[in-house]
Amino acid sequence: MRPADDRVRLKKEGGRYHHGNLKDALVLAAERSIAKSGSTDLPLRDVAKLAGVSHAAAYRHFVSKTALLAEVAVRGFASLKEKLLAAVEVAKAPDARLIELGVAYVTFALESSGSFRVMFDSALKPFTQFPGLAEAAAESLAVFQRVVKEAADAGALRSDDLNGSVTSAWALIHGHAVLLLDDHLALGVEDAATSARGTMRRLVDGLRAR
Amino acid sequence: MRPADDRVRLKKEGGRYHHGNLKDALVLAAERSIAKSGSTDLPLRDVAKLAGVSHAAAYRHFVSKTALLAEVAVRGFASLKEKLLAAVEVAKAPDARLIELGVAYVTFALESSGSFRVMFDSALKPFTQFPGLAEAAAESLAVFQRVVKEAADAGALRSDDLNGSVTSAWALIHGHAVLLLDDHLALGVEDAATSARGTMRRLVDGLRAR
DNA sequence: ATCTGATGTTGCCCATGGAAACATCGGTGG
DNA sequence: CCACCGATGTTTCCATGGGCAACATCAGAT
């Protein structure tokens, strides 16, 4: 019996020795597990078990458990960036684009809570110790910077302190997301987008050029 | 020789078997340790060692390591509440009081970063599982509610959605504190209060009655 | 002075992150 | 073709750390 046949047979029977795409499977399993437990402090052994593999197998793809979390974060930031970019497209008015950006940020935090929790977990500090993480994070933040700058250029927001405006917008919506995720706001998930929009609107009013 | 004398003598010689105030010492040690490491995931054994005691001694005062963290959080919320109340006093104008509240929040987060990290650590969720924790947290938030309400009553802020305004104020300054603590804002500690004031001012502008 | 409950200590167990040594697979060059 | 080899997984082992249990020490009450 030839090796290729073995592979097919083993795959069909589910008894294969090599996984085939373990790295992705581990990242996915970690995301899901964290989303369910609400904690980034998950046993690597459990993640491996979810992927149908022994715990030590993870070390063929990640130098450490933290490195696995870092990969979750990198992919999370990439996904967040895409969601933010997509959200910005749907609005025309420059200030409305900033508001939609905030709504998308909160929506991402709730829908991809596993990723979001890891992305801002202190275990990954400093980001520079994991290749690609700092860049991925910076690219997400860059969307905030671009949208604020465009709104200011269009005269919709004051432009005397762009960095300050960016920081305020990020801090506001990040705080909203974090408090929502940790159940500190007495809000159902269904009200999350609405409250996020209201919060962003209030800030945008404050940022408006006078 | 009376017992009280024994205690004094033993304290001076440092060779005492019983600690005398271990509970407080453990809480203090945990705060400091977390502030230094930047992580709430600290070995209980290290905390006990800092308090000069074996690790199992902690279980005479806390049912679990998490319960110790909960006590840190309860005291942290109590301390935060005091700081917020004190800060509110220094300003006269209702909207300025809200701004000072935010500055004090960030200042607390930086100066008591160990406590602050624990207070918002997901390991303590839900707060109701630890006696006193939910109440302590609610009392801190109540300061936000009171200050916003007073500003609205004085006509300094719009009063059509008080809960929304409170949420925005808390989310904004909480996000600012969190991002600062985790080095996501390119700001030195010395600029923290200034940037917090600027951020709060922007939001208050948006909350202002029109 | 002794007894007792509160407080600490030592020793143990078990879960978990990580290293090491071995097993298996799949592609590649003789 | 097939024997080898690098990649990927498994098993086994160790160290760390939370938590329990049994024992030690102390302080106040009787």
Description:
2 copies of one chain form a homodimer. The first copy, chain A, has 210 residues and is an all-alpha fold. Chain A has helices spanning 3-13, 22-37, 44-50, 65-89, 94-111, 113-119, 133-153, 162-181, 192-207. The interface between A and B is large, with 40 and 40 residues.
Mean pLDDT of chain A: 92
Beta strand % of chain A: under 5%
Radius of gyration of chain A: 21 Å
Largest interface: A-B, 40 and 40 residues
Shape of chain A: elongated
Query: How many beta-strand runs of chain A?
Result: 0
Order of helices and strands of chain A: HHHHHHHHH
**Tally of helical runs of chain A:** 9
Structural class from helices and strands of chain A?
Answer: mainly alpha
Poorly predicted runs of chain A are: 1-14
Kindly state the percentage of residues in helix of chain A.
55-70%
Span of the ends, CA to CA of chain A:
79 Å
| Quaternary status | homodimer
| Main sheet: strands, sense, barrel of chain A | none
